[in-house]
Design brief:
Pfam families: DUF1697 (PF08002). Helices cover about 45% and strands about 20% of the residues. It has helices spanning about 5-10, 35-50, 60-70, 75-85, 100-110, 135-140, 155-165; strands spanning about 15-20, 25-30, 90-95, 115-120, 125-130, 150-155. Strands 4-5-3-6 form a 4-stranded antiparallel β-sheet. With about 170 residues, the protein is an alpha+beta fold. It contains 7 helices and 6 strands, in the order αββαααβαββαβα. The protein has 2 domains: about 5-55, Alpha-Beta Plaits (2-Layer Sandwich), CATH 3.30.70.1280; about 70-165, Alpha-Beta Plaits (2-Layer Sandwich).
Length: about 170
């Protein structure tokens, strides 16, 4: 779908200061609704407007700030990964739908022996790849989790955070 259509939907739903960022479904907006109300409104509106359902990952401005501020990898670790292959992105955040996945996550991590690193945050998973995410066995293993998730690279997370601060 076009981001102009998505932006219009959010405006039509009564959200204010609606902005989209790149062609991947990122929307930043203001609302008086609580998170549950906003989520329900978005899901229903999306289904009505576009004819299909899709998972919605909603984060408040405070949650975005927390996500950025608690980045679990050091600058040295990130630089080491980038040095492995400067042509690709290395740092990703998988946004989770709120389900408790600690046990599932621990099961994935305990069997992995490669160089990539993954850390479970409050409601997200941070992934640091040494090569392309497409070649990361750790990234591929996330498909085994019984939870809805969506990935964004660190540049996108940082930009969304910046937009929330404006």
């Amino acid at each position: 779908m076009k981001m102009t259509e998505l932006k219009k939907l959010f405006s039509d739903l009564g959200f204010q200061k609606v902005q989209t960022y790149i062609q991947s479904g990122n929307v930043v907006f203001d609302t008086e609704d609580n998170a549950t109300q906003a989520m329900q409104k978005i899901q229903k509106g999306f289904s009505t407007a576009f004819g299909f359902e899709c998972a919605v990952m909603l984060r408040t401005a405070r949650e975005m700030a927390d996500m950025v501020e608690v980045l679990p990898f050091s600058e040295g670790e990130i630089n080491e990964a980038v040095a492995s292959n400067p042509a690709v992105e290395h740092l990703y955040v998988y946004l989770l739908d709120g389900a408790d996945i600690r046990q599932q996550f621990d099961g994935l991590i305990c069997t992995y022996t490669g160089r990539d690193r993954m850390v479970l945050g409050a409601n997200e998973i941070y992934l640091l790849c040494h090569e392309s995410i497409r070649d990361s066995k750790l990234a591929t293993s996330l498909g085994k989790l019984k939870v809805s998730l969506t990935a964004r690279n660190w540049k996108t997370i940082s930009k969304l955070y910046e937009i929330t601060r404006e």
